[in-house]
C-alpha cells in the first residue's frame, strides 16, 4: 500500500504529486529496489484518482528509471534505485557547459540558478 497524499486544491497536478511522492519514498529508503508497487487501478482506487492519472505518473517514473514494469508481474522499484540524482548531476554539468559556451562567469551562472529557484536577491 502506498499512502501518498494528493492535494486536489494544489496547483501541482495530481500525477506530479504522485510521482514526487514515490521518488521521495525511494530516496528515503522506504521503497527499495525490487519493491512491488500497486497496479494502476488499485492505486487509483486507493488514492481516489483517475486510472489515467496514476498511469501517467507510472509512465514518467519508468522513463526516469525509477520504476520498471515486468509485464504481467507488475511494476517494481527499479534495481538502479534513485537515478534522479544522476540525472540532476548530468543536467548541472550540461548547464555549466552551456554557460561556459556563452562566455558567462560563475557569478552570472549562479544568479540564473538562483532566479530559476525563485530566490530573491
CATH class of the largest domain: Mainly Alpha
Architecture of the largest domain, according to CATH?
A: Orthogonal Bundle
List low-confidence stretches: none
Number of strands: 3
Q: So how many helices?
A: 5
Please write the string of helix (H) and strand (E) elements.
Answer: HEHHEEHH
- Can you tell me the number of structural domains? 2
CATH topology of the largest domain: Arc Repressor Mutant, subunit A
Describe this structure in words.
This protein is mainly α and 121 residues long. The chain folds into two domains: 14-77, Winged helix-like DNA-binding domain superfamily/Winged helix DNA-binding domain (Arc Repressor Mutant, subunit A), CATH 1.10.10; 83-117, no CATH class. The chain contains five helices and three strands; from the N terminus they run αβααββαα. Strands 1-3-2 form a three-stranded antiparallel β-sheet. Strand 2 and strand 3 form a beta hairpin. The radius of gyration is 18 Å and the shape is elongated. Keywords: DNA-binding, Transcription, Transcription regulation. InterPro entries: Tscrpt_reg_HTH_GntR, WH-like_DNA-bd_sf, WH_DNA-bd_sf. It comes from Nocardia cerradoensis. GO terms for molecular function: DNA binding; DNA-binding transcription factor activity.
Amino acid at each position: 500500500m502506498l499512502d501518498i497524499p494528493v492535494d486536489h486544491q494544489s496547483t501541482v497536478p495530481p500525477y506530479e504529486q504522485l510521482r514526487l511522492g514515490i521518488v521521495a519514498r525511494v530516496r528515503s529508503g522506504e521503497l527499495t529496489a525490487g519493491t512491488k508497487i500497486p497496479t494502476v487501478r488499485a492505486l487509483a482506487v486507493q488514492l481516489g484518482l483517475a486510472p489515467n492519472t496514476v498511469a501517467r505518473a507510472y509512465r514518467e517514473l519508468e522513463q526516469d528509471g525509477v520504476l520498471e514494469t515486468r509485464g504481467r508481474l507488475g511494476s517494481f522499484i527499479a534495481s538502479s534505485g534513485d537515478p534522479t540524482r544522476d540525472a540532476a548531476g548530468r543536467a548541472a554539468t550540461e548547464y555549466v557547459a552551456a554557460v561556459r559556451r556563452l562566455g558567462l562567469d560563475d557569478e552570472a551562472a549562479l544568479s540564473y540558478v538562483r532566479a530559476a529557484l525563485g530566490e530573491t536577491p
